[in-house]
């Protein structure tokens, strides 16, 4: 269990929403909808009077947190030796390109690919220009 919570691993702590903020209230509403057994289509519909960008941002962050948790539980079983390729089955291989260190699509072992991917997503989520913490300030051209 100690290995799952190692900060150098892909698992990251959940991004928190400040209690008392509108985003926190939207997060609570999203959690209640998803945990109540209701129709998923209805659960993701924009609540009346809420900003669409804020609603989408809350769900993106929640999805990232859930994926992080899931990956944190399986990462010890997928090592560079056991998972030498990041693939989606026998027909698909994922290659990493970030235009910084990896200028061209590069084949990587699955754990390395996942670490880079999770780091990249975290940078995007923490970018105030894409996911501002002030409600209603989202730049629509970015999303």
From TrEMBL:
It holds the Pfam family Mob1_phocein. Zn(2+) binds at residues 78, 83. Keywords: Kinase, Metal-binding, Transferase, Zinc. It comes from the Eukaryota. Gene3D superfamilies: MOB kinase activator. One of its GO terms (molecular function) is kinase activity. The keyword Metal-binding applies. InterPro entries: MOB_kinase_act_fam, MOB_kinase_act_sf. PANTHER family: MPS ONE BINDER KINASE ACTIVATOR-LIKE MOB. This is MOB3B kinase. The gene is Mob3b.
